[in-house]
Each structure stands twice: as C-alpha cells, then as structure tokens.
C-alpha cells in the first residue's frame, strides 16, 4: 500500500485526538460530583472486599 492509501485508512481508524481529553474530563467530572471510581469488574474501589 502506498503512503496516500495508508494515510487515508489511518484517518478512519485513528481515534479523534480530543477523545482522550474528553474521557479524562468526564471521569474527573464524575469524581468531582462524588461518584466513586469503578473498576473494570463494575464494583466501586471503595466497596471491594478482600478474602
């Protein structure tokens, strides 16, 4: 594939540059509102139990 074809495809497969900033801002807004940070398992860190 030539450089132009790669650049064309790269445009569509790359996330928008502002996506990470929007995600961080959304997470911070939730924390500022008092919502607990969630783990990938869906439980709040503050409520996790250990055995």
The total strand number stands at: 0
Q: Residue ranges: pLDDT <50 for 5 or more in a row?
A: none
Q: What characteristic shape results from the CA principal axes?
A: elongated
Largest sheet: none
Residue fraction in strands: under 5%
Q: Could you spell the SSE succession in H and E letters?
A: HH
Share in helix: 40-55%
Overall mean pLDDT stands at 79
Q: Give the structural class.
A: mainly alpha
The helix count comes to 2
State Rg.
18 Å
Assembly annotation: single chain
In angstroms, what separates the terminal alpha carbons?
54 Å
Topology, pairings included?
Layout: H1 3-13, H2 19-32
Structure summarized in a few sentences:
The chain has 51 residues and is mainly alpha-helical. The chain has helices at 3-13, 19-32.
What tags apply to this protein structure?
49% helix, mainly alpha, 51 residues, elongated
Tell me about this structure:
The protein is mainly α and 51 residues long. Helices cover 49% and strands 0% of the residues. It is built from 2 helices and no strands. The longest helix is centred in the middle third of the chain and has 14 residues, at 19-32.
